[in-house]
């Protein structure tokens, strides 16, 4: 069993990563002038820029990259000893916005599987790796979950009844849910789900898989694939 994805779940959700500060790049428009300066306009207003290095950086963001985030490491490569002044300018004028680190505030990890062999494997692994309180449960009655719980489930054989029951409990407690299951000879790991995030739930994901299967079997075109 390859636990690479499971490790990613723990070390990106259970542990708040630090060290690198990220900044969101806000939208802006650049106007070139005849005197080698630029006029930058965004939702906060208009500012004239005459610093050559800053102009190069802003033009890079505008035309050379499709990224939505930039790190303090990236900024240091651009501005070096002038980083502090450059960052003050970028933040003050709303060109960049400091991105707060994710903190899911996980205090407890709960694992459930109706597959006994997988249940045993996860039990041994999580006892070694889980950085928080870890609970392995054998049934779905009175799930010990709350808003500070990461619930990890592996459903094999596939049981819609069990997934429906888990979904209702996760929704009620606003817990974080990682769902995996076998389907059509593959193993699927759904997106990390939480009701308050308004992200696609397992029903949407399964509907997409089933739709794809029908397209492959009957050579049909689904609605999302139709083009004009």
UniProtKB/TrEMBL annotation:
InterPro entries: McbB (IPR030956)
Domain of life: Bacteria
Name of the protein this chain belongs to: McbB family protein
Species name: Lentilactobacillus parafarraginis
Organism classification: Bacteria, Bacillati, Bacillota, Bacilli, Lactobacillales
């Amino acid at each position: 069993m390859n636990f690479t994805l499971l490790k990613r779940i723990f070390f990106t959700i259970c542990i708040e990563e630090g060290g690198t500060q990220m900044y969101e790049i806000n939208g802006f428009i650049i106007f070139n002038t005849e005197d080698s300066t630029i006029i930058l306009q965004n939702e906060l207003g208009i500012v004239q820029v005459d610093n050559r290095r800053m102009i190069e950086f802003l033009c890079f963001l505008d035309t050379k990259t499709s990224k939505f985030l930039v790190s303090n490491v990236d900024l240091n490569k651009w501005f070096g000893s002038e980083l502090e002044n450059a960052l003050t300018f970028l933040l003050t004028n709303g060109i960049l916005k400091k991105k707060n680190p994710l903190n899911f505030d996980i205090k407890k990890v709960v694992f459930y599987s109706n597959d006994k062999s997988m249940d045993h494997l996860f039990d041994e692994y999580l006892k070694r790796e889980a950085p928080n309180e870890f609970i392995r449960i054998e049934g779905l009655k009175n799930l010990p979950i709350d808003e500070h719980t990461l619930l990890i489930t592996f459903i094999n054989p596939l049981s819609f009844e069990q997934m429906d029951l888990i979904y209702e409990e996760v929704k009620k407690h606003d817990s974080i849910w990682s769902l995996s299951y076998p389907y059509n000879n593959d193993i699927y790991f759904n997106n990390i789900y939480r009701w308050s995030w308004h992200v696609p739930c397992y029903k949407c994901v399964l509907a997409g898989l089933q739709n794809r299967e029908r397209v492959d079997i009957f050579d049909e075109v689904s609605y999302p694939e139709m083009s004009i």
